[in-house]
Design a protein that fits this description.
Elements (H helix, E strand, L loop, with lengths): L4 E11 L5 H11 L3 E7 L2 E9 H13 L6 E9 L8 E3 L20 H7 L43 H8 L20 E5 L9 H10 L4 E4 L4 E6 L3 H11 L7 E3 L3 H4 L7 H8 L5 E5 L16 E5 L4 H7 L6 E5 L11 H8 L5 E5 L11 E5 L2 E6 L9 E7 L2 E3 L9 E10 L9 H18 L5 E5 L5 H8 L4 E5 L1 H13 L5 E11 L5 E10 L2 E8 L2 E2 L4 H5 L1 H13 L9 H5 L2 H13 L5 E2 L2 H11 L11 H9 L12 E2 L4 E3 L2 H12 L4 H27 L3 E5 L6 H13 L3 E3 L11 H20 L1
Helix pairs in contact: 5-9, 13-23, 15-17, 15-18, 15-20, 18-19, 20-21, 21-22
The structure holds zinc ion (ZN) (2 copies) and fe (iii) ion.
Amino acid sequence: MTGNFAARKVRVNGIVQGVGFRPFVYQLARRHGLRGEVANTPDGVRIHVEGLCRDIDAFRRDLGDHPPPLAQVTEIVDCPDPVDGYTDFSIAASQRHATRSTLISPDVCVCDDCLEELFDPRDRRYRYPFINCTNCGPRYTIIEDIPYDRPATAMQGFTMCRRCQAEYDDPGDRRFHAQPNACADCGPQVALYDRRRRPVAGDAVETAADLLKRGKIVAVKGLGGFHLAADATNAAVVSRLRKRKNRDKKPFALMSYRLADIVRYAVVRAFEQELLTCPQRPIVLLEKRTPNPLCPQVAPGNRYFGVMLPYTPLHYLLLGCGFSALVMTSGNRAHEPLAIENEEAFGRLSDIADYFLVHNRPIIIRSDDSIVRIAAGATRFARRSRGYVPVPLFLKTKVPPILACGGELKNTVCLSMENRAFLSQHIGDLENPAAGRFFENTIAHMQRILDIRPEMIAHDLHPDYLSTRYARQQTDVQKIGVQHHHAHIASCMAENGIDGPVIGLAFDGSGYGGDGRIWGGEVLIVEGHRFRRVAHLAEVALPGGAAAIREPWRMAVSYLYATFGDDLRNLALPVIRKIDSRKIDVIVAMIAKRVNSPLTSSMGRLFDGVAGLLGMRDRVSYEGQAAMELEMLAGSDQAAAYDFEWADGDVRVVALAPLVRQVVRDILTGRPAAEISARFHRTLIELFTALCETIRAESGLKRVVLSGGVFQNVRLLSGFVRILAQKKFDVYTHKKVPANDGGLCLGQLLVAAETAARKRLRCV
Ligand code: ZN
Ligand code: ZN
Ligand code: FE
C-alpha cells in the first residue's frame, strides 16, 4: 500500500493565518516530495496533497508535531481526496466566502531574527522602525476584516517595493506573505513634531531620544495607541507629567531596554522573567528595590513597579539610545481611551506632551498594554488586552452566539462561537462619552472580524450602566440580565471549566444587587444559570453615594456611626481630629436621615473605611487606591485575627461592629497601622473560611470560587488560597481573565448560555 499514489485533503483550524502557516506547509510538502496546494480559507487553512501514501503520512505527522511558533492549532481534520494531477506544490489565493471561524493572531513583539537585522548596519532594514516578518509584528491592531490579507489591513495604503514584493512572494523567505512587510523605501515612516505641529529636523528617533534626555515629554505612537514617554530618572519631568495628566498618585508604567536594566530597580524572579520576555510583552508588576535609581514620583506609595520590555522595533530604537527606564504611560487624559490617530493625539495630548513621535501606519483598533503579576503561585491579570486579544478562551461546551456587554468600569465585552469565548481588549470606564463610542466600535469590529451575529445579549442588572442601556436598546435579540456577583463567580468557573454548585466568594467595590441595593461582600451558592445569596457583609450607608468612594473618611464615619452612634464624636481617632467637625456633622445627619446614603454590603468600601479610620488618606484619586495602600501597609502575615461573628438566618449577615470596635481600640492604644492592617486582612480570611466550613457542613459543597476586584489584593488572595486548602476545600481562582470587572463579561456569557440551555431543555 505504502507505494501507492494518493491524494488527501487536510483542514487546519486555529490561529493559522498571519503566522507563517502557509509557507510552513509549502516547505513541508516540498520536503516530502508532495504536490498540491495550500490556501487560507475563512475558517483556517485548507491543504490538498498528492504523492506516495508513505510521504503523505509523514507530512501529516510533521504538520501536527512542529507548527510555526505563533500558530495555535486547535484542530486538524483530513480525508481522502481525488487525485487531480498537480505538477508542483503552490500557495493558492485566499477564498472569501462561507463562515469565518478562523482565529486571528494577537499582536506579537518583534522576533529575534528581525531584531538582529534591525541593529545590523549591513542589513537593508538597518534601524527601520517597522521591520517585521511572518513570525512577528502587528496583527489584531491592523486587521480590518478577514481573511487576513494585505488589502484588509492598515497596510493597504503602502505598495511594496520590488525587493519587499520578492520576499513576500518567495515561499522560502521569512517574509513570505507577511502582510505588514515593508522597508524604508516603501513602508510606513516615523516623523517628529513639536506640540504646535511643526516638524523637528534630524533623525526622528534620535532627536526624540535627545529631547527625552533633556527632560521633555514625548507622545510616542505605538502598536495599539499612543504612550506618553518621559525619563524615569528625572523627577522634574515625571512630576510635570503627573500634573499635566492630572494624575495624582496612580503608578506609571515603565519600559526598559533589557532585563539587566530592570533588575537594577526591581526584583525579578524566574516566573516574572518568563512573563517579561514572553511574546505578549505585558506590563509585569514587580517589587521595587530600595533604594533604586528611579525617581520616587514614578510609583509613589506603592511597593511595585509596572514594567515591560520593548515590543516594537521603534521601542527598541528609542530605548536603545541609553535610558535605564522610560515612563511609558498610556497616551490619554484621565478616564479617556488611548489616542490612536495622529490628529486625535495632536488635539488631545498637546497640553501634556512637548513633542510627538508619530508614524503613518494607521491603528485600526485600539489596544492598551496588558497588566499581569505573579501572585499565589500563578499569573494574575489586572488587565487582559494587547498580546492576548483576540485569543479565545475555550469553554467546556458549545454555546449559542452570545454578546456579553460587561460592566461599567474596566469594561471588556465578549462574543461566543461554539466552544470559544472571545474577550475584547480593555475598553475602560464607560462613564466617559469617548469610551462609550469605543465600546460600540469594539463590538462592531469584533462581530465583523469574527463574523458572529449574536442571538442573545447578556448584560449587568444596573439600569444606569452604559453597557446595560446599550444592551436594552438592541432589537431582535434575546436579552438576559445577569447579577453582577453571579457573573463574577461564573467567570471564574468558566475559565476553570467547572460546573456548579459551588460556594462563591464575590468581593468587590460595588455591583447592583438582586434587591436593588449595592452589593460587594457576598457569599453565593452558584449553579450555572442561578444563584442564591447565602451570606454578606452587614450593610452600611454610603454617605453621598459616589462621593463616599472618592473620600474614604466618609466611609470611616459611616462605619463609626453604625458602631458607636452619636458617641463617635468623642473618639480620639485621627479621622475625627483631622476632619472639620461640621463636615462630620453633615455626614452623620445624611446617614441618620438617609439622605443620599444608599446602603451597601461592599467589601471594597470596608477596606476604604478601615484605611479611613487609620487616617491614611482623605481623598483618593482612583478607585481602590485606599484599599491598595492598606494592603501595602500590612505587616507580618502571622498577625492574629480579631474576634468576629455573624448573625444566622436564611441569609447570614457578617457583623461589622465587633471588627470596627477592635480596630478603634487598637488605634487608640497606639498599635502600629501595619499590625492593624495585617490583623484586618487575617480576620477576613479566617471569618470567611469559617463561613465556608459552616456552609459545607450544611450543603456538602467543598469547592470555593474566589472572584471580584478585591482579590487583586495579594495578601488576601494568597491567604485565602492557603487557608482554604488547609481546610480541605478545592479552591478556584482567576488565572486567564482578571478577577476585577475586566473579567465580568465572560461570566455574563456563561450564565446566558446556561439560561438558554435550560429553556431548550424545557421545550423538548
Ligand atoms: Zn520577525
Ligand atoms: Zn520595500
Ligand atoms: Fe465587580
